[in-house]
Amino acid sequence: MNNYLLNQQEMIKSLKEKTEILEHQCNFLNFIQSLKNLNDHFLRTPIGDEKWSVIEIIGHFHPWDEFVLQNRLPYFLTNCSLPPSPNTDELNYHSAQLSKNNSFLYTIEKFIRIRSELVETLNQLPEESWLAELKINQSTLSLYSYFKGLMEHDLHHMNQIQSFLKILNGNALPT
Which of 84, 90, 66 has the alpha carbon at shortest distance from 137? Predict the structure, then answer.
């Protein structure tokens, strides 16, 4: 296969990958925004035994999105080493505690603001960026596979929230 055709196929693939990630991000933003009018008490109720509440789940996204914006994206397209990741347990615990002390509306708007900034940054990346190989610690992955992993994390939490809300809805969820 000639180089031109191979490059065209790679560009089409990267455009599809970029589109998939951006569509997910927009859908996830809409999902979180749809929670704005729900009852604060229920959104502060743990979703299960030894689980976070909805507000804590949403609150933990902000520092990770900020980390990706400040400590991943600027380095992805360079040959520079990536800064180390923060301690996951500490960052999650701290962000969950902060969100418990803030209003639900504040937590959602904070999430929407930083996630929208992330979406805008991703949207501005040229398609060929999605083909670049990234090295994180001992792993090599594409920009797409990195964001696909983050997308799966979002979907995991979205499913948790939806399941919790279905249970509450069965018990006449007030708004």
Answer: 84
Q: What is the tens place of the pLDDT at every residue in 16-56?
A: 889 999 999 999 999 999 999 888 888 999 999 999 999 99
Q: What token pair was written down for 126? A: 């040229």
CA distance 48 to 175: 20
Query: Residue by residue, what is the 3-state secondary structure of 56-114?
Result: HHHHHHHHHHHHHHHHCHHHHCCCCCCCCCCCHHHHHHHHHHHHHHCCHHHHHHHHHHH
| Residue % of the chain over a pLDDT of 90 | 59
Compute the chain's Rg from CA coordinates.
18
CB atoms inside a 10 Å sphere around CB 45: 15
Q: Cα-Cα-Cα-Cα dihedral of 13, 19, 24, 29, to 10°?
A: 160
Overall pTM > 0.85: yes
